[in-house]
Amino acid sequence: MDKFIKLSAIAAPLPMANIDTDMIIPQQHLKTITRTGLGKYAFSHIRYHDDGSERDDFVLNKPAYRTAEILVTGENFGCGSSREHAPWALKDFGIKCVIAPSFADIFYGNCFKNGLLPITLPQETIDLLLDDAGRGANAIITVDLETQTISGPDGGTVSFEVDPYRRHCLLNGLDDIGLTLEKKKIIENFEAKKRLTQPWMFQDE
Q1: How many CB atoms within 10 Å of residue 43?
Q2: Which end of the chain, N or C, is more open, meaning fewer C-beta atoms within 10 Å of its C-beta?
Q3: Would the pLDDT of 180 be above 80?
């Protein structure tokens, strides 16, 4: 998993509440078990017309936001089913950070496991960031996970909080497997002792 330390990128405004996981990645695209290739289907219900052509009024189709890596959106983002494909689709599309007043719990946890930073802020702060994001290609926002701050294009700064354990994992690029492998030496020593004291446990190897 890639480390998330500091990100300076275009922020796209999507001021909609209750964006569910089916809107993020529709169910017909859940057949894959890999984390790549889903970006082209992200938000497809509101991103494309029925004939597959792009909707000009969808923010991520606008030229100024095609390379956006930050999404500023409404409350209860990621509600609905628990599909982990939702953060996969956002990451594959290029979104690395989502800022909202609130998130669905399972989606929130899945973001951290996949290197996507979800940030919760009060609505009044979201409104300010939406205003910043409305500046198009000039909407450069800097998210610093080490200092837990967000800096806007005018230099204003707001603070956010992330659980220390989840912050540690993102800063070091650790998913659940990577976190376990940090203890690799301890695990190997434990198994070595078991081989000496309880060798019958390893007879089938």
Answers
A1: 21
A2: C
A3: no
Residue closest to 13 by CA, chosen among 63, 54, 74: 74
Q: Helix 85-93 and helix 105-113: axis angle, to 10°?
A: 50
- The CA distance from 156 to 52, in Å, is 40
Q: Read off the pLDDT of each residue in 34-60 and give the average, rounded to a whole number.
A: 92
Residue-range definition of the domain harbouring residue 92: 6-173
Lowest mean pLDDT among 44-48, 58-62, 152-156, 192-196: 192-196
Q: Are residues 121 and 107 in the same domain?
A: yes
Residue 170: Cβ within 10 Å count: 22
**Tokens standing for 61?**
């189709």
Q: The pTM is what?
A: 0.88
Q: Please give the C-alpha separations between residue 180 and each of 54, 78, 163, 183, in angstroms, as whole numbers.
A: 43, 27, 19, 6
pLDDT of amino acid 60: 96
42 and 59, same domain (yes or no): yes
